[in-house]
Amino acid sequence: MVGITLVLVALERIFGVGVFDPALGGDPILYQHLFWIYSHPAVYVMILPAMGAISEIIPTFSQKHIFGYRAIIVSTLAIAFVGYFVWGHHMFTSGMSGTAQYTFSILTFIVAIPSAIKVFNWISTMHKGSINPEAPFLWAVTFIFVFMIGGFSGLVLGALATNVHVHDTAFVVAHFHFIVFGGVGFAFFGAMHYWFPKMFGRMYDKVWAKVGWAFFTIGFLTLYSPMFYLGMLGMPRRYYDYLPEFHAANILSSLGSWVMTFGLLIVVINLFRSAKNGAIAEINPWHGKTLEWTVPSPPPVENFDEIPVYGEKDGPYEY
Ligand SMILES: [Cu+2]
Question: Looking at residue 245, what DSSP letter applies?
Answer without folding.
Answer: G
